[in-house]
Amino acid sequence: MSGRSKEVWGWIRYMAAAAAAVFLITQSAGLSRVSGQSMLPSLEDRDILLVNKLSRYLDEPSCGDVAIIASSTLGYRLIKRVIGVPGNVVEIRDGIVYVDSQALPELYAVGMPEDMEAQRVKPGHVFVLGDNRDPGASLDSRNPKLGQVPSGEIEGYALLRLLPWGGIAGPLD
């Protein structure tokens, strides 16, 4: 092989490696911007989040995860907290969220949600709520327009808030 051929092949290998690296990075992490007040007090309008996209391939959603959802029903993205996973029974009584008859200790939530009859989370779905629980403050699984979210619509999970810098409140274990 001539010197010129080696140089061309070197550039081709370099470009292929760079393209593979960009693909892996964009498929494993990303950024998302919060829009609206539905996740107050944990997240505010215009906060920028670092998103872990890789977990959606490696693990099932867990209660307490802050998920970025590409809703096919609504046609836009939402940021909500996973409250129930398949098989859980979610209910709201007297402003308290219950999962499988256990009250959730939600220090991250504000507001007084309206009561909601118990509903079992369907296979392949999650039940999500915004942290702002006042009536009308969050379009989430309580609303029939969204309902329970297919797990496949989860694009990733918020790792941390980049701007302004800080963590994201999570559930008490």
Automatic annotation (TrEMBL):
<keyword id="KW-0645">Protease</keyword>
<protein>
    <recommendedName>
        <fullName>Signal peptidase I</fullName>
        <ecNumber>3.4.21.89</ecNumber>
    </recommendedName>
</protein>
<feature type="active site">
    <location>
        <position position="38"/>
    </location>
</feature>
<feature type="active site">
    <location>
        <position position="80"/>
    </location>
</feature>
<feature type="domain" description="Peptidase S26">
    <location>
        <begin position="11"/>
        <end position="162"/>
    </location>
</feature>
<dbReference type="InterPro" id="IPR019533">
    <property type="entry name" value="Peptidase_S26"/>
</dbReference>
<dbReference type="GO" id="GO:0006465">
    <property type="term" value="P:signal peptide processing"/>
</dbReference>
<dbReference type="InterPro" id="IPR036286">
    <property type="entry name" value="LexA/Signal_pep-like_sf"/>
</dbReference>
<dbReference type="Pfam" id="PF10502">
    <property type="entry name" value="Peptidase_S26"/>
</dbReference>
<dbReference type="InterPro" id="IPR000223">
    <property type="entry name" value="Pept_S26A_signal_pept_1"/>
</dbReference>
<dbReference type="GO" id="GO:0004252">
    <property type="term" value="F:serine-type endopeptidase activity"/>
</dbReference>
<keyword id="KW-0378">Hydrolase</keyword>
<dbReference type="GO" id="GO:0005886">
    <property type="term" value="C:plasma membrane"/>
</dbReference>
<comment type="similarity">
    <text>Belongs to the peptidase S26 family.</text>
</comment>
<dbReference type="GO" id="GO:0009003">
    <property type="term" value="F:signal peptidase activity"/>
</dbReference>
